[in-house]
Amino acid sequence: MAGLQWMLRWRLCLPWRRYGGLPRGSAGLSLGKSLRRGLSFSALSYLAYEVYRKFSSGAVVFANNKVISDQILDKADYLYEAGETEKLYHFLQEYKESDHVEILWRLARASHDVAMLSTTPKVDKKRLTYEALDFAQKALSTDTEHFAVHKWYAICISDVGDYEGTNTKIADSYVIKGHLQKAIELNPYDATSYHLMGLWCCSFAGLSWFQRKMGAMLFSTPPTSTYEEALQYFLKAEQVAPNFYSQNLLSLGKTYLQLKDTINARFWLAKAKDYPARTDDDKEVQKEAAKLLKGL
């Protein structure tokens, strides 16, 4: 359904790649020490890390007979930042029996990311999608105060909805919104949570009459939102981390178009068009922004 297409848009380039799935969270890392793990590693810094790893034991936590150390998490985050999606997945599978929340939400993210790869067979995509939700559910049962857990739980529920139909998507919409709001509450400095909330608002602001009727069949008060509300979330994301993500720039431009504000729409679409293309998603953003600008 057109109004729910954002549910299909979770890509590897989302900001959780950098900050907790971040987005490369998005799902995100907890503040403080977790933010450190969200920083990119250069090749040189990784070599230094390998030397350090050999001579330092670091902080260690025992979980189900598996040793979870800062070095393990650092290696996982290095592989994530390096775009080694499948290597990261196989590395984390060694710890899939862990009950350590920092491992569990990363396992959810890794399963999700492999499922999103174009090279992953269709039958495996479904298995990995449900696997990701299992890890996210386990993470949530382990720690309800970790913002990355709530973000990835919302993402994984959305992904599973793609296999279970529109009714399930709409029925889960309140759950998704609630977990994104909780992620923002736990970490108000995570731009990707605001971006995802903006997408949620756009999806329900743009529902067709038929979709609204379907929602009314499932809820006495079906989920609703407005483009004005979506705009505030996209703007907040930019306030927290300016130019952090090409899709947020594009979303701002498209939302202003919905609000008939062509001046601001042109401004944000131009920024999206000129955004440095580091990923395939960035390139698609550039093309869409350029096409929209031509129509103004």
Overall CATH class: Mainly Alpha
Spell the H/E element sequence.
Answer: HHHEEHHHHHHHHHHHH
What structural class do helix, strand and pairing data support? mainly alpha
Residue share in β-strands: under 5%
Biggest β-sheet, characterized?
2 strands, antiparallel
Compute the separation of the termini in Å. Answer: 26 Å
Radius of gyration: 19 Å
Number of helices: 15
Could you give the order of strands across the largest sheet?
Answer: 1-2
Q: Number of domains in the coordinates?
A: 1
The CATH architecture is: Alpha Horseshoe
CATH topology: Serine Threonine Protein Phosphatase 5, Tetratricopeptide repeat
E-strand count: 2
Low-confidence parts, pLDDT < 50 over ≥5 residues? 1-19, 21-65
Question: Average pLDDT across residues?
Answer: 79
Shape call: globular
Helix content: 55-70%
In CATH terms, the superfamily is Tetratricopeptide repeat domain
Q: Helices and strands in order, then pairings?
A:
Blueprint: H1 16-19, H2 33-37, H3 43-55, E1 60-63, E2 66-69, H4 70-81, H5 85-93, H6 101-116, H7 122-142, H8 147-164, H9 166-186, H10 191-205, H11 209-218, H12 227-240, H13 246-258, H14 262-273, H15 280-294
Antiparallel strand pairs: 1-2
Helix pairs in contact: 4-5, 5-6, 6-7, 6-8, 7-8, 8-9, 9-10, 10-12, 12-13, 13-14, 13-15, 14-15
